[in-house]
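Q: Sequence in, structure out?
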Amino acid sequence: MMKTIDDLTVDGLRVLLRADLNVPLDGGRVTDDGRIRASLPTLTELTARGARVIVCAHLGRPGGKPDPKYSLAPVAARLGELLGQPVELAADTTGPAAHAAVAALRPGGVIMLENLRFNAAETSKDDVQRGLFADQLADLADRYVSDGFGAVHRRHASVYDVALRLPHAAGYLVKAEVDALSRLTANIRRPYVVALGGAKVADKFDAFGSLIATADRILVGGAMAFPFLVARGDKVGTSLLEASQVAAAADLMKRAAPGQIELPSDLVVTTGPGNSGTVVPADAIPSDQMALDIGPRTAMRFAAALFPAQTVFWNGPMGMFEREPYAGGTLAVARALLDGEAFTVVGGGDTGAAIRALGFDEDTFGYVSTGGGASLEFIRGEELPGLVALEQ
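A: Exactly. Output:
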């Protein structure tokens, strides 16, 4: 059984908190702090109980060596602003700077270690190398708390191995993610409608098979739609197409019940993201243009399918929401969810970023997941190493 921090003694102790703070940056500025905010309930509880909190996290893919471009310094600064107290960033992860920062920590204080992925052993597939790094991390603390759900599907040192070395528990974010996602896998209130979009297609195709087995309807937009359109014989012009997924799309359409998978009937196309768009039928994309959003008829049809649903899983925006001419489909889906009465899980970092960027209060949705790939693997029924470790 997975314990939470409510079951863990932390007063005056050093607590290593694994968070998911992999946020987008622009010139050293955090452009979307959703994941940082999601870590606050656990952090504030630990500090209120007198823990000496050592936050560890990753940012990007620096390739196992220090790279200033991937420093967590902007993240530590933003976390300090949100917490209302300074958050010192140690100049290393397990070296002299980290040990000095931990030694200076007072009860209720917070420090952050530098990017875990500056150390190749963090993500190593070699159990010995990964274990040695986990030993170094564990040496900094008395307790371990896992609160980075977006990383629990990785068998990484800070996610899996450290939990086996220290008394451990799940943070409030991990507990909330598990509770919310479990409602998409058992005792589902129906109708259950899934809306899939976004540009990261391959990860979603891995989960699509299990969604066919559980969902009543699957609405497909964004770049997710293009392999399906090509599989049925349409041309997609210069749209973002993962050609390797066309065969998988064809197989999924064969396996699905009639009408279970719904594709766009119209799309907003353009010669480039900076240009104006026009609406065309989904089977009539000009060869020199790309589709950047679902069209208005599709948006209305998707909204009509979502409104009466009792359970909804939305993973991926319907178009390039960052540019106003191509945000209509994503806006329509979000509004339909707010107008309806379904329990809604908004999954994936891009989807959460989209609703925040479009001005929606994420607290008005059922649950906004930080999980991304971890959410999809959970729904697929995969064993997630970070959760397995917490149950030990």
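The radius of gyration is 22 Å.
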